[in-house]
Write a structure and sequence with these properties.
This protein is an alpha/beta fold. The protein has helices at about 10-20, 35-40, 45, 60-70, 90-110, 130-140, 195-205, 210-220, 240-245, and strands at about 1-5, 25-30, 50-55, 75, 115-120, 145-150, 155, 175, 210, 230-240.
Length: about 240
C-alpha cells in the first residue's frame, strides 16, 4: 500500500519507517521537522521514502498529501495523549485533523483510506483521551475511513538504531478486537472504582511490548486485503509461547 505516515519523529513513528518498507509498502512521511527526522532515521531508509513537510493539526495539508501522493493508507502516531482525565485532551486536535483529512481525500480519490491510529490500553474500560479518539473514529463514515485503533500498554525500544531491515522482523503479538486479551481479574475486581484500578496495577506490566513489535504488527496488517481489525480497538499482548522462551 502507499502509506502516509504522521509522527515519524516519535519513538513509534520512526520505527514504522523500516517496518513499512520491509513489508513492501511505499512510504510518504508527513513531518514538521525534516532535520529532526534525518537525525533519527538512517539515510538509507529515508532515501526510499517521499518526505512532505507539514503540521499534523493542518487537516487541509494532510488531505493534500494524501491526494498528491495517491495514498490508500495512513498511520497516525503523532501527538501526546493526556494521561489523566482532568488533563486537557490536546491530542484530539490532531486526531480530528487527520481523520477529517482522510475522509475528504477518500471522497475525492474514490476509494476508502485504510488507517491505523494509536491509542492506549486504557481505551477499554477507563476514562482517558483514548476514549475520545475512539468516539471520533466511530463517527466517521465507514465507506471512507477503514480505521483501527491500536491499544498497547507501555512500549519500549528493542534497539536504539533505526535503519533498513532486510526482511520483516515479525512480531509475537496476540491481538483481540474491542477487549484486552488475557486480562486477569483480582479479588478486588467487584469493588466499585477501587477494583478497576487494582486490576490495572496487577495487569499493566504483563502487557508491555516493544516499539518494533507494534510497528511490525501494523505494517503487516496493512498487507492484508481485508483486515479483521477494521472498525475496532485492538488490544495486544506478547504471546505466552514467546514469554516462555
Amino acid at each position: 500500500m502507499k502509506v502516509l505516515l504522521l509522527g515519524a519523529t516519535g519513538n513509534l513513528g520512526s520505527r514504522l519507517i523500516p517496518a513499512l518498507l520491509a513489508h513492501n509498502h511505499s512510504v510518504v512521511i508527513y513531518v514538521r521537522s525534516e532535520s529532526k527526522l534525518k537525525n533519527l532515521v538512517d539515510s538509507a531508509a529515508l532515501s526510499k521514502c517521499t518526505i512532505v513537510s507539514g503540521d499534523a493539526t493542518n487537516s487541509r495539508a494532510i488531505e493534500e498529501a494524501l491526494l498528491n501522493n495517491q495514498c490508500n493508507a495512513l498511520i497516525n502516531s503523532a501527538g501526546m495523549a493526556a494521561v489523566f482525565p482532568w488533563q486537557t485532551p490536546q491530542m484530539q486536535v490532531i486526531v480530528q485533523a487527520v481523520a477529517n483529512a482522510a475522509v475528504e481525500a477518500s471522497r475525492k480519490l474514490g476509494y476508502p483510506i485504510r488507517c491505523w491510529f494509536l491509542g492506549g490500553m486504557t481505551v477499554f474500560p477507563f476514562f482517558t483521551e483514548h476514549a475520545l479518539t475512539y468516539e471520533c473514529l466511530s463517527q466517521k463514515p465507514a465507506s471512507n475511513l477503514k480505521w483501527s485503533l491500536l491499544a498497547p500498554s507501555a512500549m519500549t525500544p528493542a534497539n536504539k538504531e533505526i535503519g533498513l531491515l532486510e526482511a520483516p522482523r515479525g512480531n509475537p503479538l496476540v491481538a483481540k478486537n474491542d477487549t484486552v486479551p488475557d486480562w486477569s481479574r483480582t479479588f478486588l475486581s467487584g469493588v466499585p472504582y477501587l477494583g478497576m484500578y487494582a486490576d490495572i496495577v496487577v495487569n499493566m506490566l504483563r502487557y508491555n511490548t516493544t516499539l518494533e513489535d507494534c510497528a511490525d504488527f501494523m505494517a503487516a496488517d496493512l498487507t492484508k486485503e481485508e483486515s479483521e481489525h477494521v472498525g475496532h480497538r485492538v488490544g495486544i499482548i506478547v504471546s505466552n509461547k514467546k514469554k516462555g522462551q
